């Protein structure tokens, strides 16, 4: 009987450990408490400038393995490609979500006349499967539309209403269209109202430093158009 109990206990611990690895694989647990996150977002004036309500959860994200964590610093090269990992808590398997990446300090913190600059927009995302969502605005990292200095890029996700797909009526991009006209000077608050999106589910943000040397000049050469060159 004793050996049976010991074996059962060992089996439970093994299963428990496997479940923990499965549930939290790739999901770093941040040290910030909800109040700490609120203070960070308010300090950076993301709430209420960008959206009125505090997101309920943390969005987890990596760029080629480097974690995005409430304003930590990245170089333009590090965010040249879209995140290789984004995750957030979901409300059931049939829920659909809308993801935005917004430039807050475009072209600069001092004169953010192109806020909210849309670096990326994906709608109709089933759960957290971004690849199965509808990419409405292609991803664009940092470029020569940014002045030298520090720039915040906010990632925020909304749950779409009624668990149904939305038809997004946003600007169609062409390679000849200037970036400022195509992506800049928008309102995330008005966008959410337009499509009846709920309060933001999760958010996180990074800071990109554009005073570092641009080691890939060819990448920045096309930045007079709205769509990245493939």
From TrEMBL:
<dbReference type="InterPro" id="IPR036610">
    <property type="entry name" value="PEBP-like_sf"/>
</dbReference>
<protein>
    <submittedName>
        <fullName>Uncharacterized protein</fullName>
    </submittedName>
</protein>
<keyword id="KW-0732">Signal</keyword>
<dbReference type="InterPro" id="IPR035810">
    <property type="entry name" value="PEBP_euk"/>
</dbReference>
<dbReference type="Pfam" id="PF01161">
    <property type="entry name" value="PBP"/>
</dbReference>
<feature type="signal peptide">
    <location>
        <begin position="1"/>
        <end position="20"/>
    </location>
</feature>
<dbReference type="InterPro" id="IPR008914">
    <property type="entry name" value="PEBP"/>
</dbReference>
């Amino acid at each position: 009987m004793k050996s049976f109990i010991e074996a059962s206990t060992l089996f439970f611990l093994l299963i428990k450990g496997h479940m923990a690895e499965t549930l939290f694989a790739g999901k770093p647990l941040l040290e910030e408490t909800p109040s700490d996150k609120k203070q960070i977002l308010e300090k950076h004036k993301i709430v209420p400038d960008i959206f009125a309500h505090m997101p309920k959860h943390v969005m987890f994200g990596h760029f080629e393995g480097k974690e995005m964590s409430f304003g930590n610093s990245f170089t333009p090269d590090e965010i040249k490609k879209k995140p290789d990992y984004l995750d957030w808590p979901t409300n059931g398997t049939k829920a659909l979500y809308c993801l935005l990446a917004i430039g807050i300090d475009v072209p600069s913190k001092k004169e953010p006349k192109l806020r909210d600059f849309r670096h990326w927009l994906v709608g109709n995302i089933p759960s957290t499967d971004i690849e199965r969502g509808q990419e409405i605005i292609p991803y664009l990292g940092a470029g020569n539309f940014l002045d030298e200095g520090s720039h915040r890029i906010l990632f925020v996700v909304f749950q779409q209403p009624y668990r149904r797909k939305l038809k997004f009526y946003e600007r169609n991009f062409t390679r000849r269209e200037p970036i400022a006209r195509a992506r800049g000077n928008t309102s995330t608050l008005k966008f959410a109202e337009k499509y009846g999106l709920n309060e933001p589910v999760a958010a996180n943000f990074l800071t990109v430093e554009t005073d570092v040397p641009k080691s890939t000049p060819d990448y920045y050469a096309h930045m007079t158009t709205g769509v990245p060159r493939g």
